[in-house]
Amino acid sequence: xxxxxxxxxxxxxxxxxxxxxxxxxxxxxxxxxxxxxxxxxxxxxxxxxxxxxxxxxxxxxx
Length: 62
Known about the structure:
Blueprint: H1 2-34, H2 40-43, E1 46-47, E2 53-54
Antiparallel strand pairs: 1-2
């Protein structure tokens, strides 16, 4: 009888591990879908003539 309980617990633990793994994979996919593009253009920062950081490039000088 003890052997059947041990087997049952092993099955339950494996189910829990599998469920946790699937939930983690689902959260990973949701993060990837909702991610704002992390491209180089989005990460660029510029310093204007006053030393302030801005997201727009400075106007070209002639």
